[in-house]
Design brief:
This protein is α/β, with parallel strands linked by helices. The protein folds into two domains: 78 residues, Arc Repressor Mutant, subunit A; 178 residues, Rossmann fold (3-Layer(aba) Sandwich), CATH 3.40.50.150. It has 14 helices and eight strands. Helix 2 packs across helix 7. The relative contact order is 0.07.
Amino acid sequence: MNPSPSSENIMKLGMAFWGSKTLLSAVELEIFTVLARQPMGADALQTRLGLHPRSARDFFDALFSLGMLERKNGLYTNTPDTDLFLDKAKPSYIGGFLEMANARLYRFWGSLTEGLKTGLPQNEAKEGGDFFGTLYADTAKLKNFLQSMTGLSMGASKAIAQQFPWDQYQTFFDIGSAQGGLVVQVALAHPHITGGGFDLSPTGQIFEEYIQSFHLKERLQFIPGNFFTDPLPKADVLAMGHILHDWDLEEKKRLIGKAYDALPEGGALIIFESLIDDERRSNAFGLLMSLNM
């Protein structure tokens, strides 16, 4: 017998932005980094974060109800997941992507209806801005964006580091390496691998700082360049993560062709993206990512 129709899922999805913004604000306030140091009561946590008493307790208990915090005997602590992935002091931190979502994407998605009707971008370009031009001209904004890419790709980076047959290869470069999240995970898991990242020159210092924080500077280097106009570095393995979706079919073919030219016989090219499944129904994240672009 079919279940009776219910409005529950409709209302949960329709109001999901409440929970989303609660989490994004918690990341912005670094509540998980604070609680990673020690459990805290509501009053102490409110004071530590500089919050107004009117809504602080509701905020903390909402995070508890949403499964983002634990609460016992009046003290709040991180859950195992938020302690591992949302503490800025840990190399497993993925909050950079959520920081970017809070600072940029949240407000842009408020114009989704307009974008659907006009077909026009609803990001900085809407106001005549150049997102990448502005981004690369501001070191703080660039670092935040590169950290967001590390967070977005952390799951894939760890899987690639563990599941790809790295024992068959010696050298590896990530094309469009951003902060260096993928090469770090590979290098940590496989001490024999050397290589590095290839990206536009303004990312170099941020890449090198990230690499140095893992004490991998002797094995990983940064090569500045534009993957359309400059030759790609030669290595046994090249990777392009969240790169090809930005370009049309001919540009995609061009980049893959350049990778082929840079690889030796028996080399490998790793490509990972937020793909849409063939039936366009099961990978909602891929479909929403496409809307986001």
